[in-house]
Amino acid sequence: MTDGSDTPKPAAAPKKRLTRRELERRRLLIRSFGLGIAAVTAGLVGWYPVYKRLFDRLRPPGALDEREFLAACIKCGQCVQVCPVEAIKLADGDEGYGLGVPYIDARAQACDFSCDAVQCVLACPTGALSHEIAHKEEVTMGFARLSRPESCLAMKGEGFKGLARGYDFEGLLRYEEIDRWDPQPVASYPYDLEICDLCVRECPIKGAISLEPMSDDPADKRRIPVVHEACVGCGTCEMICPTEPASIIIDTELTLEAQA
Amino acid sequence: MKWFLHKLAMMFGAEGRKASASEETEAAREMKKFKKTPEQVIKRKEIIDHEHQYPLVSNKWRNLRWLSIIVINAMFIVSFAWDVQLVEGSMSASRFLGFHMADPNAALQVFLAFKELVLNLVIGTVTVVLLWWIVGGRAFCSWACPYHLLAEWAEAIHLFLARKGWVKDHPFHRGLRVVLWVIFMALAFLSGYTVFEYINPVGIVSRALIYGPTVALVWVIFLLGFEIFFSRRFWCRYVCPIGLTYGITGAVAPVQIKYDLEKCVHEGECRAVCLVPHVLEITKMGYASDTTEYIGPDCTRCGLCVDACPQEALTFTVRGLDKII
Asked: Is residue A192 situated within a structural domain?
C-alpha cells in the first residue's frame, strides 16, 4: 500500500494490496459470516422432521395441538419427573423441534392415570399441557382404534391365561384391588379369562370401551371391543393388549377430527 | 456514563479502546503519567521478571466455581434420580423447592413462539433474572452452566495443542452473537418453534444429565471438537444467545470484578485466561478511565483473572459495599 494519500488516484487503480492486518480482519469477517449461516442452518435442520411429520407422537394429557404444543413446551421435563409410572419420555434430536419435548410410548408404558389429578399438567410451567384440564375424563390425547381386528382374541372368541405381556415386560399399571397408591408391574399379575377383555377390564376411564356380542346367537362367544366417545386416548388398552403387535392402538389423528 | 456505555457496546461487539481524555479522571491521568516514568517502567519490568521466575499458581476461584457447577447440576440429577424434589426440571425451567425458575432466554423464545404470556413462566423468569442480576448476570455461565464446564476442559485441550503448535485459534467477530440472538428470536416469532433450543447445548447437556444420554449429545461433542481444533471457546464467545441474555440481565449487577490501576503491572496474564478478554482491555497500559473501575457487563465473574493476577489488581467486590467498608 502506498502512503500517497494526497495524490489523485487513477481511474483504473491497480488492485490494492491488503496489509496483513486487513487480510486477517477480512478473513475474520468472512469466517464469522460463515459461522452465522452455519448456526442458523443447523437450527433450521430441526424443521424438517416436523414439517415431514416423520413422527406421530402420543403427547401427555392436556397437550395443546401439536403445533402450539411444540411452541409452548420449554423442554424442561418436569412432567417426566412427576409421572408415577414414568410413562413420559423426552424426544431425541431426530425429532427436530420435538427435541426434548415429552411423549408417551403407550405400548411400553401407558398413562394409566395412577396419579388421578393429571400431575404432569400441574407440573407444566408453560401451559403446553393445558392447565384447563383438571380431571382425567377431560383429557384428549387420542382415540383408541381396533387396528388389527383379525388378531383380537375377543373377536376370535378366545380367552387369555397368563401374563398379559410376558414376564420381562417392565410396564406398570394401577391394580386398584391390590394397591390403589402403588402401581404394580404388569408382569406380576397373571390373568385367567374365559374371554379376553383386558382392554375393557383395565381401562381407567368409565364407559370408554365395552365388549359387545358379535351376533344374536347366545352360543357365539365372539365379542368386539367398541370404543366410545368417552375415550381419552391414554393408551392403557394398547399397553395391556396381549397380542403381538397390539390389536388395539391409540390414534392421535382421530382426536384432531373429534375436536374439529 | 459514556465509558460504561462503551463497555455495554463491547458486549454487543464493539472493539475495545483507550479511554479518551474526556472519559479519563484526573487521578487516572496522573497515575498513567507516573507509571510511564523511566524508574517505574524499570520497576515493573523487574516485577514481571520476578513473577515469571517464581510463578504463583492459584486455582481458588476456579475450584469454587467448578464445585458450584457440579453441585447445581447434581441437585437436578438427584432430585429426579432419588425423587428428593429439590430442583425438579432442567436448566431451561425448574422448580426449586417448589418455586418456579425459568431460563430467561428459553422463556423469551417460548413467549415469542407461543405468543401467550403464562403467569408461571413470568414468575419463574423474574425470579431467575433477579437472582442472577445480584451475582452478575453472566455469572450463570461460569457458575451454573453445564456446557461451560465441558467447554473449559475442551479449552484446556485446545491450549495444550496450541502450545504444541498443532492447532491455531480462529477468532470470530463478537458482533455475531448479537446478530444470532436477533435471528433466533425472530425465527421463534415467525416460525412458531423454539428454533434455538434445537441446537442449544446447554439444554441438551442438562437433559442428558438428568434424564439419560441422548443421540443429540453428538451435536455437543461436535461443538466441543470445533472448540478444541478450530476456535477457542467459540460457542460461549461468539454464538450463545443465552450468554447475551444473561449479560443484559446483569449489566449493572452488584457483584463485580474491580480493577485497580495502581497495582496493575500490565503484563496481561488476566487477558490470556479470560473467556471474554475484551472486558479486560482496560488492563492494557493507558486504557483505563479511572484508578479503580468495574470491568464490565459481559464479564462472567468466573474469577480466572482474579486467580491469574499476581498483583491482586483484580478482585471480587460488591458494588457500593466496597465504598462503605
From this structure: yes
Laid out side by side, the sheet with B314-318 consists of B292-294, B255-260, B314-318
Give the pLDDT of residue A4: 44
Question: What is the average pLDDT across B82-100?
Answer: 90
Tell me which residues of chain B, numbers 226 to 245, contact chain A at a CB-CB cutoff of 8 Å: 234, 238-239
Q: A58 phi and psi, to 5 degrees?
A: -80, 120
- Nearest residue of chain A to residue B190 (CA atoms): A71
- In which domain, by residue range, is B301 found? 2-55+254-324
Claim to verify: residue B141 and residue B274 sit in the same structural domain: no
Q: Are residues B166 and B104 in the same domain?
A: yes
Interchain pair B93, A72: CB under 8 A: no
pTM of the model: 0.90
Chain B hits for A77, CB-CB cut-off 8 Å, are 89-90, 207, 210-211
Q: Residues of B50-89 as b/e, b for ≥16 C-beta within 10 angstroms?
A: eeeeeeeeeeebbeebbeebeebbeebbebbeeeeebbbb
Judge whether A45 and B218 are in contact, CB under 8 Å.
no
Q: Could you say which of B221, B248, B275 is where a domain stops?
A: B248
The yes-or-no verdict on residue A2 having pLDDT over 70 is no
CB contact under 8 A, B210 and A77: yes
* Mean pLDDT across A63-79: 94
B214-235 tens-digit pLDDT: 999 999 999 999 999 999 999 9
Please determine, for residue A210, whether its predicted confidence score (pLDDT) is greater than 90: yes
The continuous run of DSSP H or E covering A145 comes out as: strand A143-146
Distance (Å, rounded) from C-alpha B188 to C-alpha B145?
23
Position A260 confidence tier, pLDDT thresholds 50, 70, 90: very low
By Cβ distance, the residue of A29, A50, A75 closest to B92 is A75
Q: Do B102 and A29 touch (CB under 8 A)?
A: no
Q: CB distance from B215 to chain A under 8 Å?
A: yes
Number of domains in chain B: 2
Rounded to whole angstroms, the Cα distance separating A153 from A142 reads 23
